[in-house]
Amino acid sequence: MNSDFARAMSRATTSVRTQNLAEATAIIQAALAGRPEPFPDPGFDTAPAARFRIATDVEDAETVEDAETVAARSARSPGPTERRSLRDVVELLRRGRAAFDEMPLPGGARARAPAPPLPDGASFAWRNHACAAGSRRYRLFVPSCPRSELQGLVLMLHGCTQDPDDFAAGTGMNRLAEARRFLVAYPEQPAAANLSSCWNWFEPGHQRRGAGEPAILAALARDLAAEFGLPADRVYAAGLSAGGAMAAVLAETYPETFAAVGIHSGLPCGSARDVASAFAAMRGQGALPPRARAMKADARPRVIVFHGTADRTVHPANAAAIADGFPQGGGLPQGGGESVETGATAGRSWRRTRRQGADGVPEAEIWLIDGAGHAWSGGDAAGSFTDPAGPAASAEMLRFFAAGR
Question: Which one-letter DSSP state was computed for residue 42?
Answer without folding.
Answer: S
